[in-house]
Amino acid sequence: MAEKCGACGPGYSTPLDAMKGPREKIVYLPCIYRNTGIEKPDYLATVDIDPKSPHYCQVIHRLPMPNLRDELHHSGWNTCSSSFGDVTKKRNRLILPSLISSRIYVVDVGTDMRAPRMHKMIEPVDVFWKCNLANPHTTHCLGNGEIMISTMGDPSGNGKAGFILLDGKTFEVKGNWEKGSNIPALGYDFWYQPRHNVLMSTEWGVPKVLAYGLDPADLKTGRYGRYINVWDWTTHVLTQSIDLGEDSIPLEIRFLHNPDAAEGYVGCALSSAIHRFYKTENGNWAAEKVVQVPSKKVEGWMFPEMPGLITDILISLDDRYLYFSNWLHGDIRQYDISNTRKPKLVGQVFLGGKIPRDGPIVVVEDHELNCQPEPFVIQGKRVQGGPQMIQLSLDGKRLYVTTSLYSAWDKQFYPDLVKEGSVMLQIDVNTEKGGLKVNKHFLVDFGKEPNGPVLAHELRYPGGDCSSDIWI
User: Fold this and answer.
1) Where does the record place it (predicted)?
2) How many CB atoms lie within 10 A of CB 283?
3) Is 462 inside a domain boundary?
């Protein structure tokens, strides 16, 4: 299947075709040393996840960056299924923006898929001068061959939404995608859908405010996000801002994969809610809350109430299931979204979090659980942190998860995670009726890395996945 698609151009013709793709055998993860006390550069790890391999669950290659304290975060492709059918394009470069340094690395994964090598480095000054932007976050490949990267701020660390355009061949910074004077104060993630002439972007917070942790004094001051920002895909102009509530912090946003669908979901971290966004009859866009994770009343923590803190969401390629992680509560959830307006909880598993029953935090009121969950231990290792970044196999049967959110917040909320390193886990998914079960034979322990414990973040498959490919 991969060879057939490769002959047609990168990726797959439809999301359902992608579900028939080959099983994942390796995965790439950015590994971060910033804020760990270890003065080593971040690196891109290649992990063998082929059960038939003698190196199963092992890091088989490490590509260190040339600089310290970049804070690698998310990654994306030079081209993807949006260019399916173009035989001149290959998915052979992984784009690695640095959230803090604002460098952008272009990694060659085509020459040797199992041993990536550096192809090009874009220095921050190019981004600063050509775009007046900084703190790049999400990368998406465009059907026209360009690469677009969303940003969170300006070169001074103030909040500012924007989008960097890279040339898909030379990887030179071309300039800004956005046009007009009406620019949102905050940026973060984005998704686009040309069939509906729209791009949706979200908001985290002011970079210089969140760079070293979460200060409660910064809440209710407009320094954290609350809007889905709606852009006209053709004119590149902001047309709407949909208010999801003060300090809701809408992070990851996903359209349904079917390119005809004019709806999707966004996960709000601090309000711990999932909102469905959709196109109205008059052509505007609106949002409605469809899932609310109740906060837990607690003692022994920085706040009297603990939100779930939804940090990552995914939609299966057949648009049947929605997944998300509650980084603080410690659970991953699976919802049946056959009825997109009424998601139904069908799977849940706890993988750590702040509230295990033997910890220092006491839950005094809980609207969901009868008792605090047990500590999560796998292969003799107690997992620190909570489930954070997630990635679903193409066929939807395996969900991979890592436990690091962002080094400064890891250090603040889970200091033992920074000391011991993050982990990568696998959850088996029941795709017929719903249901999640931890694979006890799968563990990648990033606490055992050669230069010391490291924080592994986002997961990316070489052949594309449900959070990097967009069908147009």
Assistant:
1) Nucleus; Cytoplasm, Cytosol; Membrane
2) 9
3) no
Four-residue CA torsion sign, 401, 83, 227, 255: negative
Q: 399 near 465, Cβ under 8 Å?
A: no
Residue 464 placed within a domain: no
DSSP characters for 328-387? TTTEEEEEE-SSTTS-EEEEEEE---S--TTSS-EEEE-SS-SSPPPPPEETTEEPPS--
Domain around 70: 2-456
| pLDDT of amino acid 5 | 40
CA-atom Rg of the chain in angstroms: 20
Average pLDDT of the residues in 407-428: 98
- Give SS3 for 447: helix
The helix or strand, by DSSP H or E, that contains position 312, with its residue range, turns out to be strand 310-315
**Residue 54: strand, helix, or coil:** coil
Please report whether residue 37 resides in a domain: yes
Handedness of CA 124, 127, 132, 136 (dihedral sign): negative
pTM of the prediction? 0.97
Q: Say which CATH number the domain at 268 has.
A: 2.130.10.10
